[in-house]
């Protein structure tokens, strides 16, 4: 076995499983493949796997330029991985080609085709790096869900969706941010983008539990809300892995955490232990909560397509099958319905989703308000320090495609503040 062949074969198997079996990178079978890697190979595996999915549409256009006949799925996945390495990651082409040919032989593919195609691509790699895709290249389900996009929105998505995400860090308080060992681009008094990409889990501040990683878009709605609404009884209905829960706990607020998934609860507990927080944790289906106990504010970070996190989770567009919107929309509706019963008079529901699709965001809220005349959509008024982020607010919602803030990437996201009216004013 030649150098680099084993890890590249594992990369191929991961990509093929995601594509054909509709798996995610968090699937246990994929985690087993990752966990058996040598330490020096893990970075290579992550880089090639993620970027192969980010650039797979570009790679498919390149394949069409060099191969006119229909190819099998194994050949397609092997070529996508190799093209990503040669054209977009600028790896040494001879190593990539040699490994790809050997993998083709093991998989009983046409190794001569793989060899010839990749050698031609390597010769043209400088020009091929400039290749562009358009909206017609996206899966049909994605085109259907974005048929309302303006030309400008299409351009924005095409510009940003395949870029690697930046690391955004949230601190327990201002002092811990000031004492952080690395340079930051501040986004608030307790948060900022890491200036230089590096592993920061070895820092003393990480071990002390001074901060956690949380995308700016996910951090923003609650940070904006909490500056105006304190001393309330909160419920985080889908708390794991914990970013929003940590925001509440850092303010010393009364909060109950819940998540339906036992696996995700264990991740939440691990994160809480590092951060030295010890709140009440429930492991229940939120839609089946008892309606005896009430809350002043319920946070619903709704299960969704997660399309807003496309840069972190590029498998969303890579998989053969799209999300099950019928199931997701039904769950989102039921969670809103349950929250409407559990929230106190004059209390709030904060509905959030890491999506920009209308059926998971604006349509859900409008449908809820139409059925529930005792609720109103609150003005998404920005606190003073957030005025520079006004482009994220549209028609009293926070809604954004994957975008840039302060020259750093943020996820696509949605948030709405819903208030339950007092009986006297209904």
Provide the descriptors you would attach to this structure in a database record.
426 residues; alpha/beta; 18 helices; nine-stranded mixed β-sheet; four-stranded antiparallel β-sheet
Proportion of strand residues: 15-25%
Q: In angstroms, what is the radius of gyration? A: 23 Å
- Estimate percent helicity: 40-55%
Main sheet record:
9 strands, mixed
Calculate the terminal CA-CA distance, rounded to whole Å: 74 Å
Number of helices, where a helix is a run of at least 4 consecutive DSSP H or I residues: 18
Shape: globular
Given as residue ranges, the uncertain stretches (5+ residues, pLDDT < 50) are none
Structural class: alpha/beta
Total E-strand runs: 15
What this model shows, in words?
Helix 4 packs across helix 5. By secondary structure, the protein is of the alpha/beta class. Helix 14 links the parallel strand 5 and strand 6. It has 18 helices and 15 strands. Strands 5, 6, 7, 8, 9, 10, 11, 12 and 15 form a nine-stranded mixed sheet that branches. The longest helix is centred in the C-terminal third of the chain and has 18 residues. The termini are far apart.
Concise synopsis of the structure shown:
The chain has helices at 5-21, 28-35, 39-54, 56-66, 73-88, 93-106, 111-123, 125-128, 140-145, 151-160, 174-178, 204-208, 216-226, 243-250, 262-275, 315-318, 325-342, 362-371; strands at 168-171, 184-188, 191-194, 211-213, 233-236, 254-258, 280-282, 295-301, 343-353, 375-377, 393-394, 397-400, 403-405, 408-410, 413-420. It is of the alpha/beta class and 426 residues long.
